[in-house]
């Protein structure tokens, strides 16, 4: 069996990669187990459901990282893109 080495930046990336690989394995199994004439519908339904979950996880992580690294105040000063002072809004 071939092997693959993947570099990732942090634990959240590792989890997303594992979810994607598991999704592929699950789709293969679904395709093999689905009754004749239902393979496409069964795989499509599973791909949409699991794809949404994977996409939501990736989006959540991207937004979490944005808040943690860019928008969070550093040293008591507003981060990039934030307004200082008492004025609000855009």
Description:
The chain is an all-alpha fold and 90 residues long. 62% of the residues lie in helices and 0% in strands. The longest helix is centred in the middle third of the chain and has 33 residues, at 39-71. The relative contact order is 0.09.
Distance between the termini: 56 Å
Mean pLDDT: 86
Task: Note the beta-strand portion.
Answer: under 5%
Query: Main sheet, how many strands, which sense, barrel?
Result: none
Number of helices: 2
* Mass-distribution shape: elongated
Low-confidence stretches: none
Describe what is shown at a glance.
By secondary structure, this protein is an all-alpha fold. Helices cover 62% and strands 0% of the residues.
Keywords, separated by commas or semicolons:
90 residues; mainly alpha; 2 helices; elongated
């Amino acid at each position: 069996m071939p092997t693959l080495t993947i570099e990732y930046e942090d634990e959240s990336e590792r989890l997303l990669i594992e979810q994607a690989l598991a999704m592929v394995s699950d789709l293969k199994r679904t395709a093999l187990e689905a009754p004749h004439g239902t393979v496409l519908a069964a795989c499509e339904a599973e791909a949409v459901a699991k794809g949404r979950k994977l996409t939501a996880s990736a989006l959540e992580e991207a937004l979490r990282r944005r808040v943690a690294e860019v928008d969070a105040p550093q040293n008591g000063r507003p981060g990039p893109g934030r307004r200082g002072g008492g004025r609000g809004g855009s």
